[in-house]
Amino acid sequence: MTPLALITGGQRGIGLGIARALAEQGFAIALASECAPNDPDVVAALSELGGAARFYRHDLRQIEACAGLLDAVEAQQGPVTSFISNAGVAPLKRVDLLDTQAESFDFVMAINLRGGFFLAQEVARRMVRAPSDDPRSMVFITSVSAEMVTTDRSDYCMSKAAGSMMAQLFAARLAADGVSVFEVRPGIIQTAMTAAVREKYDARIADGLIPARRWGFADDVGRMVVPLVTGQMAYATGSVLAVDGGLSIPRL
Fold this sequence. Notes:
Blueprint: E1 4-8, H1 13-24, E2 28-33, H2 40-49, E3 53-57, H3 66-77, E4 82-85, H4 102-129, E5 136-141, H5 154-174, E6 179-186, H6 198-206, H7 218-229, E7 240-243
Parallel strand pairs: 1-2, 1-4, 2-3, 4-5, 5-6, 6-7
């Protein structure tokens, strides 16, 4: 059976880097996003990934639509063997912790946490109901911000910290069912989300913020995910893996 990866937010950025890496390993790809099917990013991603990839429109905030999304994926491509919970949003505006607004907080949590949890829950239920000897996995893409504080992105940091606990909970619950669960923490990655702070981080990276002395790329994250979803690290379920060029290493 061809393995199938469902990737939220897989039409661009880190998600597309993961989709690209898994497609190269022979995975069928299901991309889920709130974007319209004719969105330029979606069209470009499907063209790059080839015939093994399909797109499904899904707004993570609509948790009542989770079952329908999985039904559609299963009808067209078969059961999901790997779920990559990647979609995430930044705050509506970077502001000091003391000025964080409820509107931004609710927006970030609705997508990064609430929506991600209930879709993962539906995927997990179906995996548990249909045991398999083939590798099955869930990968939660969080961030170094799960532990590293940025006081002008408090809502984002809290959502990623909670996402880290979410990964641990699913790992503990699904281990006996043969489903491996991992948390991957990207660092400073070149994506549309970080474009607005490019100059700021160019300077800080040059000053040694990242031991590797370079930005991370979506393909760095994609290559990390491959052994997690192909069963090579199944007994390491619950592991947290940083893809950050050494950014999160404690240093004096």
